[in-house]
């Protein structure tokens, strides 16, 4: 909601529902040490019904974190290990001939879940990745001549290993753009790893703290959060600075940008800024909300030139330059 005031009743609902979601971070924290920022982004993805691409070295608890979130929400979870020999039918399902009935029966694949973990997604060939596109964008699957709508909420969490690139298939830009966030999962700090050692054999059960109805209600409330016209203009300036940096006195980074972000990034910035305000228990968006989500929303949508790669200029550095240059309203 841009430029329109919201009622006191809605403000009270936002405050109450955001209190419920605050418990998600605490519950997942029983299993995951640290990574609060990543858990917050997973919460925002849930509120926005968006997909996440997680990048990190093996062993930093990417899979464990997603499974813990699923348990705390009481949702159906499936994990798919992407390999070079994976077929689209292994993902979405296929038709199986039943000799007893002499008819073909539909066997649904693992993508029929609420939260799907696509582990090492870049190890599967393009035809498998494209099979995932329909599910991600349309929330539906076509098997044979039948189309099935996926159960809501439906989120894809895909992981990729940034170190080992041999035998991998680079994700196409069209698919990258469909991920709302790209999160970089780093090593834990020393004191956090000490806590991991202490918890090694701990099996504390997770309590279900939310149900589907509460998730849907929170998703609707996020859309009602107030955004001032000046904040909307701020988002537009950030997006257009990635496309025409010279118009924003950013000539220094123009040579490093091959192409700017898409209109889908504009919508994602707006929606996720509202979700960030929601988890901070506010009914309005501030420029700080936009800055908090900007890197995760833009880093995978920004096309870099060969010059940027040669000089080790990252997308995050370019986003920093844009955020530092464009004045906050």
Describe, in plain words, how this protein is organized in 3D:
- The chain is α/β, with parallel strands linked by helices.
- The chain is 47% helix and 16% strand.
- It has 14 helices and eleven strands.
- A hairpin with a 4-residue loop joins β3 and β4.
Model regions low in confidence, pLDDT < 50 over at least 5 residues: none
Largest sheet: 5 strands, parallel
Number of continuous helical runs: 14
Mean pLDDT score = 82
Number of strands: 11
Instruction: Give helix and strand order, one letter per element, not per position.
Output: HHEHEHEEEHEEEHEHHHHEHHEHH
β-strand percent reads: 15-25%
How would you describe the shape? globular
Any idea how many domains?
2
Structural class: alpha/beta
Helical percentage: 40-55%
Please report the distance between the alpha carbons of the first and last residues.
Answer: 18 Å
* CATH homologous superfamily descriptor of the largest domain: P-loop containing nucleotide triphosphate hydrolases
Q: For the record, what CATH class of the largest domain applies?
A: Alpha Beta
Cα-atom Rg, whole angstroms? 21 Å
CATH level-two architecture of the largest domain: 3-Layer(aba) Sandwich
The CATH topology of the largest domain comes to Rossmann fold
Q: Strands of the biggest beta sheet: in what spatial order?
A: 2-5-8-1-9
Short synopsis of the structure:
The protein has helices at 8-28, 36-48, 62-73, 88-92, 126-138, 173-176, 190-198, 212-224, 229-243, 251-254, 263-279, 287-298, 306-310, 315-325; strands at 51-55, 77-81, 93-98, 103-108, 115-119, 140-143, 146-149, 155-160, 179-184, 257-259, 303-304. By secondary structure, the chain is of the alpha/beta class.
């Amino acid at each position: 909601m841009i430029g329109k005031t919201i009622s006191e009743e809605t403000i009270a609902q936002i405050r109450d529902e955001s209190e419920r979601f605050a418990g998600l971070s605490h519950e997942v924290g029983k299993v995951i040490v640290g990574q609060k920022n990543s858990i917050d982004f997973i919460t925002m993805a849930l509120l926005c019904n968006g997909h996440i691409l997680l990048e990190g070295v093996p062993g930093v608890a990417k899979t464990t974190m997603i499974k813990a979130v699923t348990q705390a929400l009481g949702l159906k979870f499936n994990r798919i290990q992407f390999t070079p020999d994976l077929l689209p039918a292994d993902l979405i399902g296929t038709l199986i001939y039943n000799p007893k009935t002499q008819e073909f029966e539909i066997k649904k694949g693992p993508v029929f879940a609420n939260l799907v973990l696509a582990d090492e997604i870049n190890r599967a060939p393009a035809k498998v990745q494209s099979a995932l596109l329909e599910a991600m964008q349309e929330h539906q699957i076509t098997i044979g001549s039948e189309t099935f709508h996926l159960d809501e909420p439906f989120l894809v969490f895909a992981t990729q290993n940034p170190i080992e690139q041999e035998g991998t298939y680079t994700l196409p830009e069209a698919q990258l753009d469909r991920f709302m966030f790209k999160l970089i999962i780093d090593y834990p700090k020393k004191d956090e790893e000490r806590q991991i050692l202490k918890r090694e054999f701990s099996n504390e059960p997770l309590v279900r703290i939310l149900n589907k109805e509460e998730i849907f209600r929170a998703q609707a409330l996020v859309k009602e959060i107030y955004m001032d016209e000046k904040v909307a203009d701020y988002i537009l300036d950030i997006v257009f600075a990635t496309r025409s940096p010279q118009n924003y006195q950013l000539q220094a980074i123009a040579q490093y940008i091959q192409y700017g972000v898409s209109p889908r990034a504009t919508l994602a910035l707006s929606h996720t800024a509202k979700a960030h305000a929601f988890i901070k228990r506010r009914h309005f968006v501030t420029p700080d909300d936009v800055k908090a989500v900007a890197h995760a929303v833009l880093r995978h949508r920004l096309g870099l030139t060969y010059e940027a790669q040669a000089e080790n200029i990252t997308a995050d550095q370019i986003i920093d330059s844009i955020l530092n240059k464009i004045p906050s309203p």
